[in-house]
Amino acid sequence: MSSPEIASLSWGRMTVKGCSTAYKDCKVWPGGSRTWDWRETGTDHFPGVQPADVEEVVQKGAKTLVIGRGMSEALQVPSSTVDYLKKHGIDVRVLQTEAAVKEYNALALQGVKVGGVFHSTC
Q1: Which of 19, 54, 61, 122 is a good FRET partner for 30, with 20 to 30 A between their CA atoms?
Q2: Residue 43 has what pLDDT?
């Protein structure tokens, strides 16, 4: 399965090609996407993205994971999350969300099994 293209990004809104749902924050992986609900793992801007936030994307087959920290990079990514990904052999890229979406789409276009978690506001 290929990773779906992120079709659009604006403040507070993202769309994924082939999906009728618009997301505020989203998770994408080879073959799918869904809302990233921070309440599931107790995530907040600080301490930031938890290993539990990315575990699902890894389990769904992503070999590279792109993390979008928000438009103003307010969302933190602790070293424990990066370490978790590296321990599982995942190439991780942490970027401002607009740059993260460009990186994700470029990797998806190349056929990389890429996944991501993206925060579309601050």
Answers
A1: 122
A2: 95
In a 3-state reduction of DSSP, which class is residue 51?
Answer: helix
Residues 6+ apart with CB under 8 A from 121: 11, 12, 24, 70, 71
For 11-68, the pLDDT digits (tens) are 999 999 999 999 999 999 999 999 999 999 999 999 999 999 999 999 999 999 999 9
d(CA 4, CA 116): 11
Residue with tokens 């403040």: 11
Which region, left, alpha or beta, applies to residue 59 given φ > 0 means left and ψ of -120 to 50 means alpha? alpha
pTM of the full predicted structure? 0.97
Closest CA to 30 of 55, 76, 65: 65
Distance CA 43, CA 53 (A): 8
The two three-digit tokens of residue 79, written as one number: 């070293």
